[in-house]
């Protein structure tokens, strides 16, 4: 009655009607009277779009109503939805097209569910027939309509692809649909050509667009002139995504079309290759399929050219060339020995890049982090550091690279005091860059090569270390430089082995000059590496420097919890927490590498009490369970080291401290606290160490420990006498697992009786 005179009223009626459909009897709407009316409203031209769209919304509600799938299929079949297919060809911005697009998406989704849920062959056949009928319109909407209309389609396509992947094989029609989906994806992920001029800039428009879902398929690479940057970038992105679904074996053997596509890709230079995004996705795609090249070595020259010519390292865009350097390094790691015949060619191709890097003014502020250009040196180091390289050539290669880098550092050090502050800052940045390159270069050389088979290589690195240690003397307060030199010392410990020892006193002496928490953390990490590598071999060095370390650490760290007070700086708190954690790990590394005697040396013994208090507090209260475990392990080692089975007590007062303080607070009170969560895996491991500590204390101290623990500790926590006696029996037995199980059950029984009365003593 009112469709022409008051279409807004009719739209409101339909919108209200739509909201009721999900819970009323579907027969009230899905009948000839209403279905005929709704389709008439949608299909008649000249009516208000709002009214036609509202009618489509009601039909979608009918389609989406929950019911058994046999009834659902009958309903969907009765709608003859093909009548509305032509409507999506209208104005893609209109409300009608958007609503019809949603209707088609919902209809297709329901048909897909019917095809999966119905058991009868007839039901499945009808479902797939209707689905095949609607899919062309679904694809049309995806390619031609606005984003809001396409989102529902996107979700449907994702489910459709998942369903297709679960089938044993695809029919011709299904294969056609998968191909069409790929075309839809390719069209949708393309950048709008209007933004082409922005794509070489790292801004919000030019940033790399990502897509969160993919379908596997195949593409062909074309180098024809009519392929623009947007199409090429999208096709390469699809080819890259194809790799997500392939096994390593499939890539290596070049299964399917890969055997044709990868060589084609390697040999291709696109007319739009100067475009940043095309170049980046091209390099990423080659890297993804490089295992094919590893298996098919005839393609190595093609792969090298792709990385080393204007498509990669020599690309005019610095972002691309740096990314190419990083990816090339990854490729070298994989191919390594297979690249030996090509080393000369590679070095010649990279010569200008290396020379440019070593220029005094080449320090780049644009690209910090993982793509700073030094990966070229890491790649070269991996290549020339192999034992397959003849010794003379290897020495020549390394010398040709190290010499200019070291010369740059030496020149900068000589000129450091004669320059103004601005020039000094530039020198510092340049030195940082040179050290980073040297560090990267050294990663390719093993300890065996540098010390045993080719000591001449080791000699070159020793001379380099000598030069870089001067940086600490000339710039003692420049934290970034100290970090870079420390990093190189780490490398030399691994590369030079024992022959690094003569350089350690000077290196450690210079590095120990600063007391800031961050500096001390880096220093302790270096010491941990030295201890793990050389064990008691660094005993003399540690005996000399441990007192200084302990003094600094205990002066900086508070005696209890590190907390941020009013107006406190979160960064300072974070640095203190990191220092505390690293210092405790350092103590653990010392104790577990037979170096605990250093704690008792005349210069160190003055810090013993502070160390014990810190270890005790951390073993009971540290928020990191792994640190608590490490502290308990330290106590176990100290008990074993300082209390020989037969002999005099090494540390007066230590026995009573362990029995009265450590045993009570850590082994009893701390585990009774409700925060000690037995459902946490790390906590269970910590508990195992605490139980082991009790066993060790009984072995070393006998009844002195047992009497104090049971007669003083247990009454404090209201432990019944019979449970105390059972504990004694378990402790005196030989079954550690049974002791742990019993002690856990004991703790869980005692917890309800504590009423929050336990305090750290």
TrEMBL record:
Flavoprotein recorded as keyword: no
Q: Which GO terms describe its molecular function?
A: small GTPase binding; tRNA binding
Name the InterPro entries on file. Answer: ARM-like, ARM-type_fold, Exportin-1/Importin-b-like, Exportin-T_C, XPOT
Q: Which domain of life is it from?
A: Eukaryota
Q: Mind telling me which Gene3D superfamilies this protein's record contains?
A: Leucine-rich Repeat Variant
What cellular component terms from Gene Ontology apply here?
A: cytoplasm; nuclear matrix; nuclear pore
Q: Where is the Exportin-1/Importin-beta-like domain?
A: 2-56
Q: Which Pfam families match?
A: Exportin-T, Xpo1
Determine if Hydrolase is one of this entry's keywords: no
Major site of localization recorded for this protein: cytoplasm
- Check the record and name the PANTHER family matching this protein: EXPORTIN-T, EXPORTIN-T/LOS1
Report the sequence similarity comment from the record.
Belongs to the exportin family.
Its name, as the record gives it, is: Exportin-T
The organism of origin for this protein: Sesamum angustifolium
């Amino acid at each position: 009655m009112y469709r022409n005179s008051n279409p807004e009223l009719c739209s409101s009626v339909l919108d209200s009607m739509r909201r009721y459909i999900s819970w009323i009897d579907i027969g009230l709407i899905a009948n000839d009277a209403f279905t005929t009316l709704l389709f008439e409203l949608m299909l008649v031209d000249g009516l208000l779009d709002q009214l036609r769209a509202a009618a489509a919304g009601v039909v979608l509600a009918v389609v989406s109503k929950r019911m058994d799938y046999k009834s659902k299929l009958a309903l969907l079949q009765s709608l003859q939805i093909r009548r509305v297919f032509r409507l999506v060809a209208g104005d893609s911005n209109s409300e009608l097209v958007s609503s019809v697009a949603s209707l088609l998406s919902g209809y297709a989704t329901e048909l897909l569910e019917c095809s999966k849920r119905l058991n009868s062959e007839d039901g499945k056949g009808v479902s797939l027939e209707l689905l095949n009928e609607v899919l062309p319109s679904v694809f049309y909407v995806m390619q031609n309509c606005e984003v809001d209309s396409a989102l529902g389609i996107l979700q449907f396509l994702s489910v459709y692809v998942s369903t297709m992947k679960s089938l044993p094989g695809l029919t011709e029609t299904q294969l056609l649909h998968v191909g069409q989906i790929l075309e839809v994806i390719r069209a949708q992920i393309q950048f709008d050509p209007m933004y082409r001029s922005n794509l070489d800039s790292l801004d919000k428009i030019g940033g790399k667009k990502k897509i969160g879902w993919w379908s596997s398929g195949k593409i062909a690479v074309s180098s024809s002139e009519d392929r623009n940057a947007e199409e090429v970038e999208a096709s390469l992105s699809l080819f890259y995504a194809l790799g997500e679904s392939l096994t390593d074996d499939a890539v290596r053997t070049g299964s399917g079309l890969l055997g044709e596509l990868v060589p084609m890709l390697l040999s291709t230079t696109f007319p739009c290759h100067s475009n940043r995004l095309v170049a980046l996705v091209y390099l990423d795609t080659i890297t993804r399929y490089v295992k094919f090249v590893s298996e098919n070595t005839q393609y190595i020259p093609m792969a090298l050219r792709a990385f080393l010519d204007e498509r990669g390292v020599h690309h005019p865009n610095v972002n691309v060339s740096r990314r190419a350097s990083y990816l090339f390094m990854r490729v070298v790691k994989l191919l390594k020995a297979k690249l030996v015949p090509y080393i000369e060619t590679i070095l010649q191709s990279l010569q200008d890049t290396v020379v440019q890097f070593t220029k005094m003014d080449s320090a780049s502020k644009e690209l910090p982090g993982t793509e700073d250009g030094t990966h070229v040196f890491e790649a070269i180091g991996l290549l020339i550091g192999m034992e397959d390289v003849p010794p003379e050539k290897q020495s020549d290669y390394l010398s040709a690279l190290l010499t200019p880098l070291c010369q740059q550092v030496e020149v900068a050090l000589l000129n450091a005091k004669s320059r103004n502050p601005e020039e000094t800052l530039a020198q510092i940045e340049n030195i940082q860059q040179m050290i980073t390159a040297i560090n990267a270069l050294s990663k390719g050389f093993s300890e065996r090569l540098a010390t045993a088979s080719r000591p001449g290589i080791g000699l070159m690195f020793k001379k380099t270390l000598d030069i870089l240690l001067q940086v600490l003397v000339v710039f003692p307060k420049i934290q970034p430089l100290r970090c870079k030199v420390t990093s190189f010392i780490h490398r030399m410990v691994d590369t030079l082995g024992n022959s690094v020892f003569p350089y350690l006193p000077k290196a450690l002496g210079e590095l120990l000059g600063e007391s800031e928490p961050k500096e001390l953390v880096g220093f302790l990490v270096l010491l941990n590496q030295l201890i793990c590598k050389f064990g008691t071999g660094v005993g003399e060095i540690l005996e000399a420097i441990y007192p200084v370390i302990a003094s600094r650490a205990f002066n900086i760290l508070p005696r209890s919890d590190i907390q941020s007070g009013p107006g406190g700086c979160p960064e300072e708190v974070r640095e203190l927490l990191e220092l505390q954690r690293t210092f405790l790990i350092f103590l653990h590394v010392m104790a577990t590498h037979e170096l605990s005697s250093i704690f008792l040396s005349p210069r160190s013994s003055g810090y013993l009490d502070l160390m014990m208090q810190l270890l005790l507090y951390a073993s009971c209260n540290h928020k990191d369970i792994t640190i608590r475990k490490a502290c308990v392990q330290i106590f176990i080692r100290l008990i074993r080291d300082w209390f020989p089975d037969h002999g005099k007590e090494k540390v007066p007062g230590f026995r009573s401290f362990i029995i009265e303080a450590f045993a009570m607070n850590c082994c009893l009170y701390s585990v009774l606290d409700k925060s000690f969560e037995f459902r946490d895996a790390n906590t269970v491991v910590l508990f195992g160490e605490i139980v082991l500590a009790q066993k060790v204390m009984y072995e070393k101290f006998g009844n002195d420990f047992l009497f104090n623990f049971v007669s003083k500790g247990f009454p404090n926590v209201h432990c019944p006498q019979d449970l105390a006696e059972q504990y004694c029996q378990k402790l005196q037995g030989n079954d550690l697992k049974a002791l742990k199980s019993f002690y856990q059950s004991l703790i869980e029984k005692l917890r309800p009786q504590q009423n929050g009365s336990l305090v750290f003593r």
